[in-house]
């Protein structure tokens, strides 16, 4: 099955280079090129490609805003960001806008082509440095557990049941479970024991 790709970059030389690189792949077809974000939205809506290869810094409408509009307007489309920039703000804006992947322009050719195929399948395609930053961002909220989440986790660390924690904090058992689930998500764990262990390791709870 051919992957129909729309290129969105404000530099003609970059678009030409990408088009030439992808043209030799038997399963990839470049169906259009956009020089700004607004044009990218218009072409994506008209051409309905499987994938948009999107630069972030573009005139008229930036890449993150264009990504959000494309994802909202074209069912099933994937957007793979290809940019020079890898600041936390840029990465998070692109991901929040709905980008499936985020590659840097110095990505080797074979990895870029593999990323295009992966993103078209709906899989995340991330440059290693970007992946590290995203993991750090996801884990970051572990340092920002709410006071109530910390209280609930402290009760669990003392061996209390959800019901007992609820009685101690004057909240329902269901509320205790909700706080625990949120704490699990922030800590990147899926059970009570691991949550306590990780919280202690990170200094969120005092050690034994």
From TrEMBL:
The modification 4-aspartylphosphate is found at residue 55. Residues 138-203 form the HTH luxR-type domain. Coiled coil: none annotated. GO terms for molecular function: DNA binding. GO terms for biological process: phosphorelay signal transduction system; regulation of DNA-templated transcription. Keywords: DNA-binding, Phosphoprotein, Transcription, Transcription regulation. The keyword Transcription regulation applies. PROSITE patterns: HTH_LUXR_1, HTH_LUXR_2, RESPONSE_REGULATORY. Pfam families: GerE (PF00196), Response_reg (PF00072). Residues 4-120 form the Response regulatory domain. InterPro entries: CheY-like_superfamily, NreC/VraR/RcsB-like_REC, Sig_transdc_resp-reg_C-effctor, Sig_transdc_resp-reg_receiver, Tscrpt_reg_LuxR_C, WalR-like. This is DNA-binding response regulator. It comes from Cellulomonas chitinilytica.
